[in-house]
Design goal:
Strand order of the largest sheet: 1-2-3-5-4
Helix content: 25-40%
Number of strands: 10
Length: 205
């Protein structure tokens, strides 16, 4: 289903119920740096806290001698980004629904003192009934009220202006900025994808 720095995401099936799940397989041999260990431990700790219809759910954690398996909710609709690319644009009613779901999910994690820090269409999945799910908490962090996180991270294309300019601001504002940037950036991303595909077609002659 996908591949990351420390392993792959595979599709699994619960033997008794037949339910499809996403299994994130982390190879311990690739997790060597102390900061990486802390990051993964923090991600798991945060995922265990989350229980919301618009945030991906973790079901179980299985550890073996070689690997760490994170069994998670499977969103069969795929990335929101790919849906937009395939359809060129979302209908206003659908876009409005997804934006409301995004706001609800982000508001929930902020109430828990969690900042996602990497909100973008690629990290928003759609499940079988069209409901939006916020995923990938690899760069997320927890904070106390009034505390300001100082690490600049996330995808530059979607970074909040305050992050790019190294301006100190409330943690929740970083996600709020990212929450609006992806939606205003969709048409630019689609046009960029089209340009790349066109260039590839031309170069193949």
């Amino acid at each position: 289903m996908g591949e990351g720095t420390f392993g792959k995401v595979r599709l699994g099936t619960h033997i008794l119920t037949g339910e499809k799940v996403a299994v994130k397989v982390l190879e311990k041999s690739k997790i060597k740096d102390k900061k990486d260990v802390e990051r993964i431990s923090r991600e798991i700790k945060i995922l265990k806290k989350l229980h919301h219809p618009n945030v991906v759910q973790i079901y179980e954690i299985i550890e073996t001698e070689r690997d760490l398996y994170l069994v998670m909710e499977f969103a069969s609709g795929g990335e929101l980004f790919e849906l937009i690319v395939q359809n060129q644009r979302l209908k206003e009613k659908t876009a409005s629904k997804h934006f409301q779901e995004l706001v609800a999910g982000v508001h929930y994690i902020h109430k828990l003192g969690i900042c996602h820090r990497d909100l973008k269409p690629e990290n928003l999945l759609v499940d079988f009934d069209g409901q939006l799910k916020v995923v990938d908490f690899g760069l997320s962090n927890m904070y106390e009220m009034g505390q300001t996180l100082k690490t600049a991270c996330g995808s530059p294309c979607y970074a909040a202006p305050e992050v790019r300019l190294a301006i100190s601001c409330p943690n929740s504002l970083i996600d709020d900025r990212r929450k609006s940037l992806p939606w205003s950036s969709f048409r630019y991303l689609v046009n960029w994808r089209r340009s790349v595909r066109y260039a590839v077609r031309l170069s193949s002659f």
